Amino acid sequence: MKSILKRALNALLIVTLVFSVTGCWDRVEINDRIFVLALGIDKFEPGQDGQDEEGDEGPEGVQQPGASPRNRIVVSIVFPNVGLLKGEGAIVPEEPKAAVSTVGPTIFEAMRQFNTRLLGNIFLGHIKAILVGEELVSDEKLFLEVLDELERDHEIARDVDLMVVKGSAKDALFIKPLVEPIIGNYIEQIVEQRRTGRFHSKDLGQIATSIREVGGAPIPRMLVGENELKIAGTGIVKDYKLRGWLGEIETRAAQWVDNTAGEDVISVDISGILVPFELTELKRRMKVWRDEFGDIHLDIKLEAEGNIEGHILEVHRDVMEQSFIREVEAAVNRDMVAQCRAVMNKMQHVFGVDIWDIGDYIRKFHPDIWDDVKDNWTEEFTRMKVHIAANAKVRRVGIIK
Amino acid sequence: MGFLGMLTAKKQKKKPELEGGKDKASSSLDKNLRYLKDKLEDCDDIVYREFRVGNRQQFRFVLVYVDGLIDRDMIDQEVLNSLMLQARQANLSPGILTGDVFSLALRSALTTGEVKEEEYIDKSMISLLSGDSLVLVDGFKKVLVIGSKGWPSRGVQEPQTEVVIRGSRDGFTETMRVNTALLRRRLRDPNLKIKQIKVGVRTRTDIAIAYMDNIVDKNVLEQVENRLESINIDAVLESGYLEEFIEDSWHSPFPQVQNTERPDRVAAALLEGRVAIITDNTPFVLLVPVTLNILFQSAEDYYERWFIGSFIRILRYVSALISLVLPAGYIAITSYHPGLMPSDLALYIAGTRIGVPFPAFLEAVIMELTLELLREAGVRLPGPIGQTIGIVGGLVIGQAAVQAGLVSPIMVIVVAITAISSFALSSYSIGISLRILRFALIIFSAVLGLYGLMLGLLIILVHLCSLKSFGIPYLSPLVGNTYYELEDSFIRVPLITMHRRPKTLAGANMIRIRNKEAIGPFSGGSAGVGQKGGKAGSGGDGEKDNKDGSPGASEKGGKAGDGEGLGTGEGEHSAGNRKDKACREKAGGGDENSGRGGNGGKDGIKNGGGPGGGRDTDG
User: Fold this and answer.
1) How many alpha carbons lie under 13 Å from residue A302 in its C-beta half-sphere?
2) Chain B, nearest residue to A33 by Cα
3) Which positions in chain B touch A89 (Cβ < 8 Å)?
């Protein structure tokens, strides 16, 4: 009996110790957290507004932060006002979201600076989108640091959408969108519903991996409007530095080559009339081979299917005519090949970035070729001979009478 | 052997204390009477009736009984009337009369069924106190004990704790004799043994150990007997007293003894080789050994069709899991790992918790305690007031607390789902265990998050793995190597495929459905046997068909293991079938109706169950 009592006392002691002695728990009540939904990072330029961390003036006299060595980036976050979800009775601000920004040397130091102004524990586990400013991506040293911080943090998921903002990321986060008030959700929903090939869907993990492995990557581009955001086009990063942009049409063609394009519409000119051709399915086949002179050839074949969406009724020719359909198909083929060739040219000769991971394909499927080219793949990529062909098929022509 | 010897010695030493046997009856009526009156001083419910018997009133008799415990009509009619009136009117030859009036009364005068003679006066006193009547005769050193038990008792009613939609509606009562009768009504098998002992120095409560002699695991039976006999307590008022004394580890939160109010459940358990302990004065019969799996079963699982039974059983396991981990999981995820939730849910929960003054842990503990309070209040109160409690409690924990901002609505949902889940369990005792453990897990996860929750679950699992009930692993059939027993665990397979009894429980006679080929619509050959066999799983009926002939076989092959027992049984049965066929041929015609087939089957069995010699040659 004595030993049982002793054991019980010991157990009690251990349990009390667990409660009383342990100093740092990870426990944070869910309502004490700030759920950051979107994170924006810009390069700091003197003259931008924001608060300097060193300065003896109070908040009302916000001073222009100077060019201190600590002032390197501007970090902005957006978080929803969860209190609004509770409905009546809660004393909460009326705004559905809050956006704040600060200047600091690194992302995580900036997060601590937020703690001097915000209530709660900043939680990055539910970030939907990370926006980086154009200027930041143009600074290779800063971008490398930022990318590493983002990848290293255990709270940030690797499948967060990463985008480069034409302009500043802070501006993108501070707008009041018309459709969905909370920026993070807004961006996530646009990306999720993707019914066009006009922007890449690349997440943080994919971008970081291909920058590291291939040396370059396409990053989706975001354009900021008065009260809306637009995701279209691509920023091309090579060696941690933004080298230039691809337009929307170019992005679409790039994705055809990549086999990641969604549905889209191509309008082709058939004797003066623009006929919209809805692309419903697209398959890309790729083949790499070497000729007797040692040149590497890349064959790309696009197999497309789609519908004719519009045509002037009976004025010209009947859409049921086979020759007309063949003509449309030929025009679509022509257009697609031309667009793909243009973007391929740009990649090979302007940027010199293998955004399609063709090098990876060669490594996996043609290891003998890869052994010869792996040491200067970027060069080989620009010299590669590319043959593009398309084969479109019309499946439906719409209701005709 | 020495140990066993010690045990038996102990048994004999204890007996006089419980059942008397020290003081012999004297030949003097007055002495005996003085002994009784002395011992039973101030017991005003004892009635002494002196009367004289014989045509010359020469024999002094005294009738003693406890008022209220006996059947008055029976005593008046069969004892007093017989001895005083009819015996006097009888025209007896003087030779008989002058002889032994004691045995004359016993053999010829008392017209009642249960009479025995007793040498020990203290022993007969105990019988008196348990409802028998005593007849003392002057000049004889013996006492007549007349079985006259008859007291006001509750009738057989529907059990309150284990209600079923489909299934028998009779439940055990407080009178042990009625309970054993309910069992015997279900198992008309000579192998159903009901052994009676007394436990409790002061209560001398009757305890009956019931088991199927040729199915039960003898080791378990021996353990049950030993443990029951080693109990030395003054009173056993309910079977819960016994339960605590005979369970394997008293410090475990899990029940290691099953209790039930349903005779059909006990019958099914006996047929699986388990042992029932029936205690007087309580409708709760104990069943041992028990496994966790058994506690998740309900009698109705076997009465509804198999896939419905299986579905409900899976549901029960899920609800056990919910009732164990839901509040703890909620705390762990919301206050440690909000990244595990979908964003919208996380934001919603965060929103609803704004302004709630307590951390999720305290909130959960408060709500769970409120729920326990409500449950406890509802149980103790009479029906109509209980409903009021339900409504008030529902409003208090449901609406008011949320509106006042003291509790978040999600927590109310969590607690409500937990409560419903814990009430969905078929066994009340396992529900209570899980409820206690739920609080432990809440603390674990409040301190260490999901890591703590997993830690707690692992501790519970390790404990469960080490737990045994009368030598049977508590987690069987999930542990061990008798895979076929899984047919009756998370799911229940159709009865026609449950051919064998669970090996971990039953000791012998493993086969419960023998004639596979005779089951189904196209088994014309032995339709009668087939139909009977088909019923075998649902009760004892079909069992009996096989059992009728098997005592001999099992006595022979009982120790040799089920292999041999099975072989003999099979032979025996095929003999039955063969005879059955012969009968049908005699009856003429290959396609007679099923009624005739049935008759044939019965005949066949009767023949098959004939003398042992014939069977041997068949086997």
Assistant:
1) 34
2) B350
3) 355, 403, 405
